[in-house]
Amino acid sequence: MGAREVGLPQVVAADLPERVTIWEVGARDGLQNEQAVVPVDVKVEFLARLADAGLTTLEATSFVHPKWVPQLADAADVLARLSPVDGVRYPVLVPNEKGLDRALEAGVRHIAVFGSATETFAQRNLNRSLDEQFAMFEPVVARAVAEGLDVRAYVSMCFGDPWEGPVQPAQVAAVGARLMAMGCSQLSLGDTIGVATPGHVEAVLRAVTEVGTPIDAVAVHFHDTYGQALSNTLAALRLGVTTVDSSAGGLGGCPYAESATGNLATEDLVWMLDGLGIHTGVDLDRLADTSAWMATVLGRPSPSRVVRALRG
Ligand code: HMG
Ligand code: MG
User: Fold this and answer.
1) CDD domains per the record (predicted)?
2) Which of 61, 164, 252, 309 is geometrically suited to a Cys-Cys bond with 75, CB 3.0 to 4.6 A?
3) Residue 163: pLDDT above 80?
């Protein structure tokens, strides 16, 4: 059944943006955490179907060490077999210069470096200390910017860390500011383990903007472990954020943070934004069909409430 037939009510609320850019991470954050390696053909079809559903930013894969994330060791093959769609960008994760070399060879134009707000996660995810991560990213960002690439910076563990516990908003703001000062154009604040609640989101966004990162350069990246991702998104939109990361069907997680579950599902996000009259350009029915197909491929139901309601 289609979203319209179900009767999605549309009521515009005050103090919200007219348009939101969805940064779709399903092919990267979603598939990096699968037990089995998803075949290249399936990844390419997934990306094509996401573009066909109207998503215009598709984080496609990662040029990380293939031993660290075997699920994405086929990054170059996926990009080579992709039929790029006009108006769609395909950013990839790049941790270091080796990854940048591989990305440039594959013709990539948009990359994302990914830092940590905490010492322990920097060690576990990057094999670097908190300080060493900046030394690793610095030449990557400098070279990428000189080549005319657009560079996003992620900060992980912005709201809590499974080893260190609470994370201070000022610490997140400082890490973010250091990455932005390198020449990144956008800062995506990751709730890697999904523990944030809306007041906490406000506190972190205020800390980040207070140190000079403009709100229109900030994106939010919520995992939905505790079911808070949509409320957190609404809190961020009310403070002026207009780029939201999500994953088709709610796939996702981080292999180096065991308590991380799926990202905010793109369908759940689009249902809310459609209901608020906020433009995304996404066709919810095509997207739900794509996630229902992916759930069949992966052999388990989608965790997205909206996919289950529309296609269950
Ligand atoms: P390392 O072992 O310290 O690497 O790993 P190294 O610099 O010591 O190099 C060792 C060998 O690896 C060298 O080869 C390098 O050439 C090779 P050798 O000289 O020994 O033959 N190497 C590479 N090969 C291919 N591609 C590369 C690469 N780099 C080095 N890029 C490294 C350090 C950063 C590479 C490793 O820790 C890594 O790959 N980590 C990535 C982990 C990851 O992908 N995690 C998931 C993404 S983050 C996430 O999901 C969070 C996010 O969603 C936001 C949120 O939710 O919060 C973004
Ligand atoms: Mg993530």
Assistant:
1) DRE_TIM_HMGL (cd07938)
2) 61
3) yes
Task: Please report, for the domain that includes residue 252, its CATH number.
Answer: 3.20.20.70
Q: Map tokens 């086929």 to a residue.
A: 74
Rounded alpha-carbon distances, angstroms, from residue 271 to 58, 91, 143, 228, 274: 19, 25, 39, 15, 5
Three-class DSSP category at 67:
coil
- Is residue 260 scored above 80 in pLDDT? no
Phi and psi dihedrals of 74, rounded to 5? Answer: -90, 20
Nearest CA to ligand 1 atom 43: 125
Answer yes or no: pTM beyond 0.90. Answer: yes
212: left (phi over 0), alpha (psi -120 to 50) or beta: left
As annotated, the active-site residues are 254
Ligand 1 close to Cβ of residue 126 (< 6 A): yes
pLDDT of residue 45: 98
Q: How many structural domains are present in the chain? A: 1
d(CA 115, CA 125): 9
Q: What is the pLDDT of residue 114?
A: 98
- In the sheet that holds 243-246, the strands lie side by side as 57-58, 21-24, 243-246, 218-222, 186-191, 150-156, 110-116, 92-93, 61-62
Tokens representing 181 are 């000062």
**Is the CB of residue 160 less than 8 Å from the CB of residue 166?**
yes
> Residue 137: CB within 6 Å of ligand 1?
no
Q: What is the pLDDT of residues 100-126, one digit of tens each?
A: 999 999 999 999 999 999 999 999 999
Determine the structural domain holding residue 26 and report its residue range.
Answer: 3-311
